[in-house]
Amino acid sequence: MSAGAGPQPGRLLLAGLFAIVLYACSANPPPAPQPAAKTAGSAAVPAPRTLARGDDWRSLLPVPFGSTAGQIPFAMKEVLLFQGSARSGEGRGAEPDEQECFANDGAPFQLRGIQADDYVLCFFHDRLFRAEAVLRLPKDAAPETFPSWCDEWLDGLADVARDAERCAGRDQDALFEATLAYDTEIAGPLLTVAVADRSTRDLVEQRQKERAEKNPRP
User: Fold this and answer.
1) What secondary structure, in 3-state letters, does 48-60 show?
2) Could you tell me the pTM of the whole model?
3) pLDDT at position 107, please?
């Protein structure tokens, strides 16, 4: 090519294409980097405390709700429901063929290292739906004992309710409740811990209400 010759067509074409690419890049800059999406469970949610089985209210259930009396892994003896399921009154007025309660007839049940005065399992149509233990706390038990235990028992539960002498909550369909009663000055308070299947308990209460309406007390 001579010194005075103009640019060749091929070079002009390449230059034009390069200019188009530069324009497109400047008109559509790459998107700014986005913060990483949070995955499920990435939030800092405290994990429920892991209690030893002997300290956990769930230890009241030797088998899952809905199990039959024949599936209980220890000997039992039937108890009368003259004033309800153990001390709570939930069994009052239950028909014999609908609800039965049994006490442990073997090694005493313990919770928090304290032997229970009463430990009762209740069945509705031969299906376990409630367990209850009554313990006598030591007379010299520290005042913060019950609140501290409630803190641990309620950890991770839903529908939590509590006051100075009661705490309650729900773990899926399991209803938990613990109550403190000062029935004497010569011994420590009574601690009642109960767990019940929500749907069956509601059914039992409905049956009791219907019977009470049909047969009002004089």
Assistant:
1) CCCCCHHHCHHHH
2) 0.70
3) 85
